[in-house]
């Protein structure tokens, strides 16, 4: 009887441990801290660091976009919060926006972040009610970032100089 | 007293051995980046799976694992399932033990892979017993460990010594792509290999059966021999 109990425990333990290993190799954590974050995500108890998020928002409102992105990256290390990812994308847009040309690298980075936000949002629809923003949906932001990364004849239009940053 | 022996034996067989083997599977692909000190998990390349299959075949041929004793119709399903999981753990531990001592890419990766394949393939046709096979594996893995983690990594270390300078002169023009890992990677690999050997030592060719089933088997064998005598 005791042997049977040990056998069952062994089977269960082996399966659980093997699943953990597969999960580790699939998620590829880069540090013990990331292992802990990924575990929280897997357990469904992951929450962003609200204090860091608010700090990032304050920096964003003062047009310190790079610092804001750093704060938000710290607030959402697992990149699992759609709202934070939206703001990161928005910060990339605002920093990369230029009257004459756009910063392609930042726009691409923003596009990646907004795609993450859309994938994480329920039904892929994300609306952020922030009066300081001119684009409130992830879809609008994505379209704007996509337009910025594409090159076309419209780029030669001199009236482009009079457009406004959103 | 006997109760403890049986319980400990079962714990060793069904819990400790798979745990050790799975730990090897976890650590075998772990590297630590030299600059950022971040973990890098390298899944076993295809060649290591082929090597693990060859090694598994070698275990069976050398009698280190008697498959007919590990899987039998007379055994309870749970026992067969537990044995299957242990052997799967052994397979992945073997693959990751190879992964641990194989250079990650470039010319050296293929050279090491070729030598492993050659060794395991020629061993398939040699006369081996379990003990000799284990000794041979220890030598093979320790040689590969020394070559990879002491010689090759030392060769391309940022602050290399005279050996590094000599190699740079000798191998001038030969591009050998070796990623730089932190020294702790070598320790992790060493620990994984030690665990792997420990796991191999714990795997018995014939898994221990509970005393009651031994008695039943003895009674059955007696009955068979008695019926044989009567027939004669």
What features would you describe in this structure?
The complex is a heterodimer of chains A (166) and B (232). Chain A has 166 residues and is mainly alpha-helical. Chain A has 2 domains: 2-43; 50-162, Alpha Horseshoe (Serine Threonine Protein Phosphatase 5, Tetratricopeptide repeat), CATH 1.25.40. Chain A is 63% helix and 0% strand. Chain A is elongated and about 85 Å long. The relative contact order of chain A is 0.09. By secondary structure, chain B is an all-alpha fold. Chain B has one domain. Chain B is 71% helix and 3% strand. Chain B has helices at 2-27, 46-62, 67-70, 77-101, 106-123, 130-155, 162-170, 184-202, 211-231, and strands spanning 30-32, 39-41. Chain B has a two-stranded antiparallel ribbon. In chain B, a hairpin with a 6-residue loop joins strand 1 and strand 2. Chain B starts with a helix and ends with a helix. The model of chain B has no long low-confidence stretch (mean pLDDT 84). Classes of the chains: A mainly alpha (166), B mainly alpha (232). Chains A and B meet through helix 1 of A and helix 1, strand 2 and helix 4 of B.
